[in-house]
Write a structure and sequence with these properties.
Blueprint (H helix, E strand, L loop, with lengths): L1 H19 L31 H13 L13 E9 L5 E5 L1 H14 L3 E9 L6 E9 L2 E11 L5 E8 L41 H9 L1 H11 L1 H11 L4 H6 L2
Parallel strand pairs: 1-6
Antiparallel strand pairs: 1-2, 3-4, 4-5, 5-6
């Protein structure tokens, strides 16, 4: 009996560990690593490879590209197939490819100039490695945004995801201000290929096709990426006239 009493704490501890361990056949959540070490690997399969400050600096450089008071030479280290997804009321896939992102930002500095005076960017040890609360200032007023950035092993920015930071549009909450909940609804952690070392997206790959068959949002993303300008112009034509004002809260 004495021996049993001595072993009881160890037995109970073992039971607690077993209770905390995930079920072996548990269905992965939307922000889990899936298909690791394959062409279909998702973003959470990657770990940071560079200092924390690097990821924050890259996020800040991204906002420099849209800030007329920042140097036009301050450009983040984009992947060749970097994608930008801006949730409604914005136009969803609004950038695809390194040169496209650079060219569009240069055009916006001329035709729709803004500054980005408010920037709170932070590093996170799981993808997206950089997450920011920022506010643009346009002629019409401020425009608050929550934005996240995914990177590959070389430190290239592979995916940008943005939401309006307004009631009924922001994805975060007081309890989960930085999107750390296991069920946080983002696209970046669901796109196959972003979890490869190079993080290169292939919207026509068999892996993307398989993911699209199970996830309508992935299907929509893949279609837009394969037909970027056509789908972007269609989104613009069909958007309400005041979509920008709605997203900014004007």
């Amino acid at each position: 009996m004495k021996a049993l009493l001595l072993l009881l704490p160890l037995l109970l501890a073992g039971c607690e560990e077993a209770a905390d361990a995930p079920a072996p056949n548990a269905v992965p959540g939307p922000n889990d690593c899936t298909n690791a070490a394959t062409e279909a690997a998702t973003a959470r399969c990657l770990q940071p490879t560079l200092p924390e400050a690097y990821y924050v600096e890259q996020a800040l450089k991204y906002f420099d590209t849209l800030d007329v008071e920042a140097s036009p030479d301050s450009i983040p280290n984009y992947s060749e197939r970097s994608a930008r997804w801006e949730w409604e009321p914005w136009l969803l896939l609004t950038g695809y490819g390194k040169q496209n992102l650079i060219d569009v930002s240069r055009s916006l500095r001329r035709v729709d100039p803004s500054t980005v005076p408010i920037r709170d960017c932070r590093f996170f040890p799981t993808q997206p490695f950089a997450r920011c609360y920022i506010s643009f200032t346009y002629e019409g007023g401020p425009c608050p945004i929550y934005e996240e950035f995914v990177f590959n092993d070389a430190g290239e920015m592979t995916f940008i995801e943005a939401w309006s930071d307004l009631d009924n549009l922001r994805p975060t909450s007081t309890e989960d201000r930085w999107g750390e909940a296991a069920n946080f609804n983002r696209l970046s952690t669901r796109v196959p290929g972003l979890g490869k070392a190079d993080g290169l997206i292939d919207p026509a790959s068999p892996e993307m096709t398989a993911a699209a068959a199970a996830d309508p949002l992935i299907a929509d993303f893949a279609n837009r990426a394969q037909n970027f300008w056509a789908t972007w112009f269609d989104a613009l034509q069909n958007a309400p006239n005041d979509f920008f004002a709605v997203g900014c809260g004007w």
